[in-house]
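Structure (tokenized):
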């Protein structure tokens, strides 16, 4: 099925129903000047299309925490955002030191953040647990010395 998402000078822009909006954002590790921009842009985009505010809140929390984890704990990464009629999926792929024990990393309060990061207000060890809490699907995979992949989905229909 096709739907019209934009009518411009060159005619209609058609997209499949399966793939309403797709965008890739890059995230630079250690860059605190631009930290948070990706999640801010995604939040603004969702507000502009009038998605349910509770869904926007959950996406905003999950993307901010995932973005900050790349800034804090990895070298660089990208965030793939995809909106379909059923759900919002977010995949964050980074290159960096990776996570030795993902089960431990998921524990509330566990953090390897430095004193400097803690002075900036990070390092409560609540990011990953909060992402999971706000997601309907969640998968964390990591390879030490290579990088980390986080996949999450938030369903648009609250009964799903
Ligand atoms: N992308 C990543 N690459 C490498 N290590 C990570 C990554 N994401 C999380 N970690 C590891 O998992 C730990 C727990 O992550 P979590 O987001 O829960 O807490 P935090 O980032 O330390 O603190 P907070 O998110 O509360 O500011 C981190 O301290 C870090 O050791
Ligand atoms: Mg974190």
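Design, position by position:
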């Amino acid at each position: 099925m096709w739907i019209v998402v934009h009518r411009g000078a060159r005619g209609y822009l058609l997209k499949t129903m399966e793939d309403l909006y797709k965008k890739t954002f890059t995230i630079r590790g250690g860059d605190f000047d631009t930290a948070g921009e990706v999640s801010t842009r995604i939040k603004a985009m969702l507000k502009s299309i009038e998605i349910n505010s509770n869904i926007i809140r959950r996406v905003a929390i999950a993307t901010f925490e995932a973005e900050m984890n790349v800034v804090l704990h990895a070298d660089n990464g990208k965030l793939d955002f995809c909106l379909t009629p059923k759900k919002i999926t977010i995949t964050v792929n980074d290159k960096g030191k990776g996570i030795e024990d993902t089960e431990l990393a998921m524990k509330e309060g566990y953090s390897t953040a430095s004193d400097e990061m803690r002075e900036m207000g990070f390092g409560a060890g609540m990011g990953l647990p909060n992402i999971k809490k706000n997601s309907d699907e969640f998968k964390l995979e990591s390879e030490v010395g290579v990088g980390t992949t986080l996949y999450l989905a938030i369903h648009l229909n609250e009964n799903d």
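Reviewer-requested clarification: The chain has a mean pLDDT of 91. The radius of gyration is 17 Å.
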